[in-house]
Design a protein that fits this description.
The protein is mainly alpha-helical. The protein contains five helices and no strands.
């Protein structure tokens, strides 16, 4: 079994790493997410971060492009997740939507449901 990454996967890793270095709210790999005393401010910070990631399609990487994803596979999703962790990026606030509700809508939702809910799940709206 060959577990080496493809040239496309290596390029994706470099792309997301470069984006994170340019967009993290602190030094790449060195900062830690703030723990704000006010829960509302904490949620606001995380929603803004997730919306910024979603605008560049770094959320829902395996989702179809027509719904805001990148249409990539599970290995590519792992590459992005690994780079987010390596960078010490804030966690996504809408993980249940991204990992459970979104895929359920993709599989079983109507076109109207998909158009209404999927973009908002990615941005944590």
């Amino acid at each position: 079994m060959d577990l080496s990454t493809s040239p496309q996967q290596r390029q994706l890793r470099l792309e997301v790493r470069g984006w994170l270095k340019a967009n993290l709210p602190w030094e790449y790999g060195a900062g830690i997410p703030p723990r704000l005393e006010d829960l509302g401010e904490q949620v606001k910070f995380l929603v803004q971060w997730q919306a910024k990631l979603a605008a560049e399609r770094w959320v829902g990487v395996t989702w179809p492009t027509c719904y805001g994803g990148r249409g990539l596979g599970p290995v590519e999703n792992y590459v992005v997740t690994e780079e987010l962790a390596r960078a010490r990026a804030p966690e996504l606030i809408g993980r249940i939507g991204i990992n459970l509700a979104g895929p359920t809508l993709l599989a079983y939702g109507t076109s109207d449901q998909k158009s209404r809910w999927l973009p908002k799940i990615l941005t944590a709206e």
